[in-house]
Amino acid sequence: MKTHIYLLIISIFLISSCKNNNKHKIDVSDIVVEIKIKHFEKDLFKFNIDSSDYYLKLYRQKYGEFFKLYNNNIIEIGSSEDKFYPESLNEFIRYWKPKEIPKILDEEFPDFEKDQLPVVEEAFKHYKYYFPENYIPEIYTFFSSFGYSVVLLDSIVGIGLDKYLGQHNFHLYDKVGYSQYKKRRMIKEMMPVDIMRLMGETDYPYEADESDNLLDNMIYEGKIQYYLNCMLPETPDTLKWRYTEQQLTWANKHENKIWNYIAEQRLLFSTEKKDIRKFVGDGPYTSIFTDVSAPRAGAFIGFKIVDKYMSHNPETTLKKLLEEEDARKILAGAKYNP
Predict the structure, then answer these.
(1) What is the per-residue pLDDT across 65-80, written as a single tens digit (0 to 9) for each?
(2) Which of the chain's ends, N or C, has fewer CB atoms near its CB within 10 Å?
(3) Domain ranges in the chain?
(4) Distance of CA 45 to CAs 81, 105, 197, Å?
């Protein structure tokens, strides 16, 4: 059973004035995608311990394996088969209900099928275009206790709605302890990006070995960004990069500077975890540059290399790109020279 839980630890942005990568626009109007959706959070908050047998039967029948994942991995209260489970679930709900979580979720997502689902379906039309043999997952929405944004279980994508409550609910994230750069990503517009990133990372996971180096990580991150451009050609680059507008401007302006630093310091093939983390690890900025720099500057260069590679090799499909594990081949084929 394939299980992937994706905890997004993030930071962003201004959306309106940022450019899209329009070269990936394709006509998907003839592709039919109908996503089935279930709202677990609505049933969850109806739980009544006096009728626990009824509700547990409902949860098991309606939500199946996702219900197990929710209990064991998301809110971590154990198996619903445990005799103490009803009390544990009741305590969980009694903690969050007085904080008006059900009301907040209803107010923020009054009509998910109308407001959020069309953008997700459009992304999956592109997914079906590039990967026609792949299965389109069902979507389950849920309350994650402010822990998880997106989870993937076999043919199900789960969306933790409480991680997308928007700026006017940032006070809730303050209480949980999220920093400013992470809070900025907790907006509805990030949802399709997070879903498709998870799909890409799950279908084509990064396989680290003893020779794992910075270039390998840069190229992998670059491939995922290229994949996002294909899945979400109309989505602003700031969202897909998880950057502010200023950070995206900085990255484009200082592309040469970033590359030269990596080359001059002979970091490209460094296997040091600290070097890899500095350049592709998430954060408010890239620490070796200024505090107004873009985070994950190495990933940005990785994307530029991948983009050049695809330009020089137009016969290469997205699938072949993602399957190519030789980062040096991609670097050589890119003829990259910022």
Answers:
(1) 999 999 999 999 999 9
(2) N
(3) 3-203, 214-334
(4) 19, 11, 29
